[in-house]
Design brief:
Blueprint: H1 6-14, E1 24-27, H2 30-39, E2 42-46, E3 56-58
Parallel strand pairs: 1-2, 2-3
Amino acid sequence: MKPKDGLVKKALEKYPEIDLKDCFIVGDSLCDVELGERLGIKTFGIGVGKKEGEALIIDSLGDVVRYL
């Protein structure tokens, strides 16, 4: 399934203390947004063009700070 979530799942196995509700993803493509939403992680899309699901679409990485 694209986008692939194997790296996230591997990190969760290695570090079980990670709680996804305390995490977020910042990406610059719709694939990044889809990954975050599929995993239930708060997601920020930088300039991806449109609101996608629950993701917050922002203009720059600096905009993330306002939402944390």
